[in-house]
């Protein structure tokens, strides 16, 4: 079971997956920072309207609490399929996934309802993380990330981080159509509601995509950002809010 812990006052989740030795990962919660409402308190997003000094301090606290070997590579996320390769610490890149083959380079994506998906190879030689909201999933961000990792899918493990659950994620018919057009059985991840719309199960959709790629070792997927206000930011629930981070690095 994924464990929620506090490290030096900073709230984090430790993924419940059998990552090989040498692979480290964490997911930051909303607690333990300095930001004021509606970004209270551990907001790591610099693009949401929060005071920049607060974001800088929050990121410093995360770095210190997790003993990160470097500042995470913060992406400019656009709900697309671009994958950055972190061979050196670089300026912010426009991408929705990032991988690394070098130790002490920290991959990160920011989320507040979209699903972060961590990847690691069994030999601990490559790792990465993808930002997978419905647009990214439909467009193929997981497939693009796996292709860039360059490892046979059977040799990868994946972890699905906290995201909005089907009970709270209402979408229109165009979202369902985007998935069903490529995979008729993806319809199983959508349940009609009384408002003529659909409840969308991101976890089920991600698992289908990963299974189709040949990744059998998939973990996580049990936390709802919308339902747990104390731990998680949720854009769908609150509108203006902070961002959490899914982080992975090689030691």
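Sequence proposed for the structure above (251 residues):
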């Amino acid at each position: 079971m994924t464990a929620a812990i506090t490290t030096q006052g900073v709230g984090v989740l430790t993924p419940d997956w059998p990552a090989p030795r040498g692979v480290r990962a964490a997911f930051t919660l909303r607690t333990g920072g300095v930001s004021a409402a509606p970004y209270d308190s551990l907001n790591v997003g610099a693009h949401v309207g929060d005071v920049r000094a607060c974001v800088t301090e929050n990121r410093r606290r995360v770095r210190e609490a997790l003993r990160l070997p470097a500042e995470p590579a913060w992406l400019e996320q656009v709900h697309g399929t671009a994958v950055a390769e972190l061979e050196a610490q670089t300026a912010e890149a426009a991408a929705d996934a990032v991988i690394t083959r070098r130790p002490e380079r920290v991959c990160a994506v920011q989320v507040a309802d979209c699903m972060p998906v961590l990847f690691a190879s069994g030999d601990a030689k490559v790792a990465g993380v993808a930002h997978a909201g419905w647009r990214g999933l439909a467009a193929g961000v997981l497939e693009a990330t796996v292709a860039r990792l360059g490892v046979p899918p059977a040799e990868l493990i994946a972890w699905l981080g906290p995201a909005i659950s089907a009970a709270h994620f209402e979408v229109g018919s165009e979202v369902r159509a985007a998935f069903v057009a490529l995979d008729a059985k993806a319809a199983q991840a959508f349940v009609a509601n009384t408002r003529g719309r659909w409840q969308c199960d991101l976890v089920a959709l991600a698992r289908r995509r990963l299974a189709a790629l040949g990744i059998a070792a998939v973990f996580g997927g049990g936390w709802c950002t919308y339902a747990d206000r104390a731990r998680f930011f949720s854009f769908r629930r609150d509108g203006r809010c902070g961002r959490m981070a899914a982080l992975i690095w090689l030691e």
